[in-house]
Amino acid sequence: MNYEEIPKWLTSIVIGLASAWFASWLALRKFKNEKTWDERRAAYKDVIESFEELAHWSEQVRASHCCEPTIGGEAKFDESLRNISKYSATGSLLFSPKFQEILEGANAKLHRVRFQIDDESKPDMGSEREMTEWYFILAKEIRSIVDNSLPKLIETARNERP
């Protein structure tokens, strides 16, 4: 073996190792970004579906109160509120600051409306009619919050697609 050929072999090995390391680093980075986006997309979907579920619940209550036919399927009111509240508290780990800000604002409004309407009309809940009035008022207020927040959330999520 000739000692003059060692630098050639060594150079080839070093270049090969550096190229392999760089290629694997790029592939891993791409995989991490895709995995993060998949998790974020799933969380965006959960939040947006929860808002849509609240809109459906509001429409069911409104239609029932106005003696119109209701759309089939039971809305998951409490589950949707819990989901929105959960992501409002922990979403800063996944969501963009703008999406999180809109979500926290909507969650605060939902809580405020529920407790404000509850406090204002609680003494009046003596009959079935008064209960339906209370649900109707609550549904109208929740629908206005959903109609205000949902398009903003969808647009923000759409703008963040890779």
Summarize the structure in short.
The protein is mostly helical. It has helices spanning 6-65, 77-90, 97-121, 128-159.
> What is the share of helical residues?
over 70%
Poorly predicted runs are: none
Mean pLDDT: 86
Structure annotation, total helices: 4
CATH topology: Four Helix Bundle (Hemerythrin (Met), subunit A)
- Report the CATH C-level class: Mainly Alpha
From the spread of the alpha carbons, the general shape counts as rod-shaped
Order of helices and strands: HHHH
| CATH structural architecture | Up-down Bundle
Structural class: mainly alpha
Measured by DSSP, the beta-strand proportion falls in under 5%
* Count of domain modules: 1
Extended strand count: 0
The major pleated sheet works out as: none
Measured distance between first and last alpha carbons: 53 Å
Structure notes:
The protein is an all-alpha fold. The protein has 4 helices and no strands. The protein has helices at residues 6-65, 77-90, 97-121, 128-159. Helix 2 (77-90) packs across helix 3 and helix 3 runs antiparallel to helix 4. It is rod-shaped and about 100 Å long. The model has no long low-confidence stretch (mean pLDDT 86).
List the helices and strands and how they pair.
Layout: H1 6-65, H2 77-90, H3 97-121, H4 128-159
Helix pairs in contact: 1-2, 1-4, 2-3, 3-4
Index terms:
Four Helix Bundle (Hemerythrin (Met), subunit A), rod-shaped, 0% strand, 162 residues, 81% helix, mainly alpha
